[in-house]
Amino acid sequence: MTTTHFNIAILPGDGIGEEITEQAVRVLNTIEPYMESVKFHLDYQSVGAGEFLLNGDPLPSSAFEACKKADAVLLGAMGLPNVRWPDGREMAPQLDLREQMDLYAGLRPIYLYHGSDSPLKGQSPGSIDLLIVRESTEGLFSSRLNERIPNADEVRDTLLITRKGCERIIKVAFEEAMKRRKKVSLIEKSNVLPSMVFFNEIFFEIAKDYPEVEANSVYVDAASLFLVKDPARFDVMVTENMFGDILSDLAAGIVGGMGMAPSGDLGEDAAVFQPAHGSAPDIAGQNIANPVATILSLALMLEWLDHPQTIQAARRIQNAVVSVLQNPDNRTPDMGGKLSTVSITDLIIDQL
Ligand code: ATP
C-alpha cells in the first residue's frame, strides 16, 4: 500500500490554545504509528492576538498561505480580551480564516458522556446526542467588519441570508442527518424576520430531495427552551451564524461545558478543526484547561481526511474518550474534577 501524506497546519493561538493543542498533538503522535500507510507533517504557525502584539498582524499572510496549502488545519483558540482593534472589536483571525477560506459549514457535535456532567435532571450517556450545523460565512456576522460612523447615534448590523448560502448549508445538514437519526430542524425566526421566511422556504424546498429525513422548523427562542427541557427531540439543528454561535454555547452547557464541545468548519475542500470555546485567558498556563474538546476536534479532523486508516484512528480516539469519561472522576476542574490538562490526556492516550 502506498503511503498517504497529510500536511496539517497547527495554529495553537492564544490563552489556553497552546496547552490544549499540545495535548491533541500528543494524541496524534501516539495514534500515528497505528496508521501504517498514513504520515502526518505538522506545520506550526503563529496566529492570533499574541502574534498581533509581536508583529502587528493577527493572521500573517504566510500563515494564511500555509493554511490554504494544508490538507486540514487544527486550531487551538484565538483572541485575548485586552487586545482589540481601535473600534473595540477583539482580534478574531479564526473568523477571517472561515470567511477567506469559505468554510461555510460549522459542525458542532454535542454528546453527553455521563449523566452527572449535565445540569439537566435524569440524563444518561448518549441521551443528549445532537449536531448543530452553523452557517459560518454570512448571517448576522456578515456585518462584523462594517465601519462604525463616528459619533452617529445609530448603528445597524445586517443579517445576510443568500440562496447560495442557504442551499449549501441545508444540504450539509441533510447529508449529516442521513448518517444519523434522520431528522433535521431548521432553527429560525420566520415569525419576525423576512430573511428567515426566505431561509425557511429554501429549507423545505431542499427537504423534498430527502424524503427519508424528517424536517421541521423551530423558532430560535423555542429551540432554546427545548434544548433545556427536552434536548432528545433534536438530531441535526441547522441555523444561521449568530443563532448557531449562541445555541452552540447553550448546547455545550447541557453536556458539561465548553471544554466538551468540538467543532469543524468545513468548506468544499478545506477545513479547520478547533474546540468550540475561546482562549479562556483566566485559566491559561495553569494546566487545568479541559483538552477534551480539542482532542475530539482532532478526531473530527481524522474522520474528515477520509482515509480508511484516519477514519479508524478517529474511532479509536472517540472510543478512548468514551472509556475515560465513563468514570465521572476523570474530569478537569471546569467539570468539577481534579485532573490536570496533561493527566486527563494521559488517561486518553492509555486507552488508544
Ligand atoms: P469566544 O468568544 O472566543 O468563544 P468567550 O469569551 O466566549 O470566547 P471562552 O474563552 O470560550 O469565552 O471561555 C469562557 C470561560 O469558560 C473561560 O473563561 C473559562 O473559564 C471557561 N472555559 C472555556 N474553555 C475551557 C476549557 N477548555 N477548559 C476549562 N474551562 C474553559
Summary, kept brief:
With 352 residues, the chain is of the alpha/beta class.
Polypeptide structure, described:
The two termini are 24 Å apart. Helix 9 (292-305) runs antiparallel to helix 10 (308-325). The radius of gyration is 20 Å and the shape is globular. The longest helix has 18 residues, at 308-325. By secondary structure, it is α/β, with parallel strands linked by helices. It has helices at 17-31, 49-55, 61-69, 93-100, 163-178, 194-207, 220-229, 241-253, 292-305, 308-325, 341-350; strands at residues 4-13, 38-44, 72-77, 105-111, 129-135, 183-188, 214-219, 236-239, 262-266, 271-275. It has a 10-stranded mixed β-sheet, sandwiched between helices. The chain is 38% helix and 18% strand. The protein has 2 domains: 1-104 and 267-352, Isopropylmalate Dehydrogenase (3-Layer(aba) Sandwich); 105-143 and 158-264, Isopropylmalate Dehydrogenase (3-Layer(aba) Sandwich). The structure holds adenosine-5'-triphosphate (ATP). Residues 16, 79, 258-259, 277-280, 282-283, 289-290, 293, 334 line the site of adenosine-5'-triphosphate. Adenosine-5'-triphosphate binds at residues 16, 79, 258-259, 277-280, 282-283, 289-290, 293, 334.
